[in-house]
Design a protein that fits this description.
Length: about 575
């Protein structure tokens, strides 16, 4: 079905290939997962499979890519459309119509599908991806997660034999992600669809994979069994990290497998089961914060005392927001303290992004009030607002307008009154070195997010808002982000995250607020809210239940006294 023969891709002006040595043969009905660090070349490999590389992206391709007998050197993406369906990281970039149902039907119309068959496929796809309730909604009014599902549906409905997906669950809540991945799994096993998927949140998908391809430093591995690949993969989910640290063999890939392996470990740590949510600690250790914050340093973790009493940096009082006639927030009263990281969670469309937009002054409440540092953010001049509140949106590209990374950094320093080099230094701290001459549109999703976050932080806002900040970030980059957010919060900033990433919440959040249908349904310490939640519990919490531990670091710290 898919054959790559010693494929290498080198983009114009690049000193070395983005990927090299790709030799793969993927059979029909395989579920193949592509893993690797942020910027390692996963998206490039996927785009080779439908001819976007090189016909759209440019660059030089050596070797051969053959899809169902068609060589991509001779067949452009439109020639492969009936065989290969591609879903990219940015769903809005792929939309060509205005409403959900029209978008799902469009691809079939271009392929000349019979109207009766088209109608049936539209209905089946709406049900398969949980979109029937929004079938008539304008695409621009959907949440990011809903847009992602529409993008998948539009490609899937056209009936391709190969489905290629780049970060398909990055904007989905845990339940929505599970539904999408389970649907893909059924299609693989029930109708023989071939799925090739790149994903950073491996905890969601690795147990579905038949084979794994690892890309590290541009080198593409052969197909490997998932358990074998995870032994030395540079990126791996928490369940594998725990298995590595405990020297379990074979490595568990699912919570079920890990719970079986962890029977003795839970018994060993059973004495912690009596601790309450607060006594059990925050996200940095099983014995609680005790007024300290864990930060990564050059010589390992260090703790910094927090001496300042938290104050209310942002307050919403009876806030109601209507968007296009729909109540997005319904009489919400909530406050956010400085010196703390608060995670706002909930299913797609629950009102998370609406709350952040209101706090950023970009959306006025229909009734009630929002105050940030005692001021109405919507009334502040933009020049004054940047020092009060800063928002990194789901699509970080909306903050980027210059022709290069270096120009973006210099412009941010100038516009925000920051010392020269401040934004570039923040980029290095968040992500690492980015090529200064690269155009922002050529960066990966994670790289664009790092650049946008650095730009917002250069303004030193008192309240930092982040909407899905780990989209496109691997585990190492997420670890850097966790350390950075903890340092920012420790310095006095109120950090508010709208996120579906339960592993990020376990690592960094002090408090969790859960929204449902525009109302707050849970609000409390992170451990007490997420540890027992079927939807929002991180992998380690599920493995260790009822022992109240959330992360691998928690488990390691709990074992230290016994060692």
């Amino acid at each position: 079905m898919i054959e790559l023969q010693d494929v290498a891709v080198t983009y114009a002006g690049a000193a070395r290939p983005t990927i090299a040595g790709a030799t793969l043969r993927i059979d029909e009905g395989e579920f193949v997962l592509v893993v690797g660090p942020t910027g390692s070349g996963k998206s490039t490999l996927l785009r080779c499979l439908n001819g976007l590389v090189p016909h759209f992206s440019g660059g030089t391709v050596s070797g051969r890519v053959v899809i169902d007998g068609r060589d991509t050197r001779d067949h452009r993406p439109r020639d492969l459309a009936e065989v290969v369906g591609f879903v990219g990281q940015d769903p809005m970039a792929s939309f060509v119509t205005d409403t959900v149902e029209d978008e799902i039907a469009y691809g079939m119309e271009t392929l000349g599908v019979d109207p009766t068959a088209m109608r049936r496929r539209v209905e089946e796809t709406l049900d398969l991806l949980g979109l029937a309730s929004v079938r008539d909604r304008p695409l621009a009014q959907l949440s990011g997660g809903q847009q992602q599902r529409v993008a998948i549906a539009a490609v899937l409905a056209a009936g391709p034999r190969v489905l290629v997906l780049d970060e398909p669950t990055s904007a989905l809540d845990p339940v929505g992600a599970e539904e999408v991945l389970a649907a893909l799994h059924r299609l693989v096993h029930d109708v023989g669809l071939t799925v090739v998927l790149a994903e950073h949140r491996l905890e969601r998908v690795i147990h579905y994979a038949d084979q794994i391809v690892v890309i590290d430093g541009g080198r593409v591995s052969p197909l490997r069994h998932p358990a074998d690949a995870m032994i030395d993969s540079p990126v791996h989910p928490p369940v594998v990290a725990l298995g590595r640290s405990m020297l379990w063999s074979p490595l568990p890939l699912s919570v079920r497998e890990a719970r079986r392996a962890a029977r003795g470990l839970r018994g060993q740590l059973g004495h912690l089961g009596h601790l309450g949510p607060v006594e059990a600690g925050g996200p940095v250790g099983p014995l609680g914060r005790s007024g300290h914050v864990s930060e990564p340093g050059a010589d390992g973790p260090v703790t910094t005392p927090v001496n300042n009493e938290p104050t209310k940096a942002a307050v919403g009082t009876h806030v109601t927001v209507k968007r296009d006639g729909i109540v997005a927030l319904d009489e919400v009263t909530v406050s956010f303290a400085d010196h703390a990281v608060t995670a706002v969670m909930g299913r797609n469309g629950a009102g998370k992004s609406t709350l952040l937009l209101g706090l950023a002054g970009l959306l006025r409440p229909s009734s009630g009030s929002l105050r940030v540092m005692g001021q109405d953010p919507a009334q502040l001049r933009p020049s004054a607002r940047v020092g009060v509140v800063g928002l990194v949106p789901q699509d970080p590209g909306v903050l980027l307008y210059a022709d290069s990374v270096a120009d973006e950094c210099r412009a941010a320093d100038r516009d925000l009154g920051a010392p020269p080099g401040r934004t570039a230094a923040l980029v290095r701290e968040i992500y690492g070195e980015l090529p200064g001459d690269a155009h922002p549109s050529d960066l990966s999703e994670g790289q664009r997010l790092a650049l946008a976050l650095a730009i917002i932080l250069a303004g030193s806002p008192h309240v930092l808002l982040l909407d899905e900040p780990t989209r496109g970030l691997d585990y190492a980059a997420k670890g850097h982000l966790v350390g950075l957010l903890r340092r920012i919060a420790n310095a006095g900033t109120a950090v508010i995250l709208a996120t579906h990433d339960v592993e990020l919440v376990a690592e960094v959040a002090d408090r969790v607020v859960v929204l449902a249908d525009g109302q707050i349904v849970a609000d409390g310490p992170a451990r007490s809210v997420i540890a027992g939640s079927p939807a929002f519990a991180p992998q380690i919490a599920k493995i260790m239940h009822p022992v109240p531990l959330l992360t691998v670091a928690d488990v390691s710290a709990a074992l230290e006294p016994a060692s």
